[in-house]
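Fold these two proteins, one after the other.
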Amino acid sequence: MKLKTLFVAGMLVSSSVWAADEAVENQVTEDGVVKVEWQDPDSFRDIRSSGDIQSRFEKRTFDQLTKNLNKEASKILKPDQKLEMVVTDLDLAGDVRPTFGATTHDMRIVKDIYPPRITFSYKVIEGDKVIIAGDEKLIDMNFMYSVNKMNDKTYRYENAMLTSWLKKSIAPQL
């Protein structure tokens, strides 16, 4: 009986390990004129949650960044244009540090030595024609000094960096 129980337990463990090895699909977020594919988030430089379930934190982060991109891109793009991006790396402003039991969660410490970064490819599509395409590696070394300090919105540094990119790189080409 013990051997049968061990065999069944072994099968369950091996099947769960096998399921974990399966390729995870890239997350895709879409809002209005913006579509973003988040390619292999597990390999991103820093998208660590400080106190939430990691998958929930990633989904909320990706949704918020896409929502803000849509808000800003809608002001720049013409009605029949769409922005599509494939993000290959993301590093949120700050660094997650353990609290060693002082609280139940880790803390994200935001200092100027931990700037936000993002690497992606993009294309602006008009109808079925690509009118602008390229690759970007954005980093905002001045992020602590360029955003209103009274702004307490989530992902304010990343949103400011992407908004600046839209205004300086995409808008002049349209």
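Now the second one:
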Amino acid sequence: MTKSELIAQLAAENPHLRQPDIELIVATIFDEITAALARGDRVELRGFGAFSAKKREARTGRNPRTGAAVPVAGKAVPYFKPGKELRERVNGGEPQPTGRPARAKVEA
């Protein structure tokens, strides 16, 4: 799903909101996640997952064409760890509610 598809889906599910407002909401959420990662913070969305930035140390790489050694600078790379509920839904299981025991179904 692309960002524009996400906006279109949200607009279809929320006809009381204007599309420019939805675009602003989506852009603001992404901008805030990006800014937090740039500061070195972790962003956790309960039931979905956590975004963080992992550090990669400087290393010596190889030019694939010539085989010559090339220094590669250290950097931070974005990392996403899915939450338990997201993993269960993707794998076809129903997520268990967290924080309270599941209630038994009563058939009439």
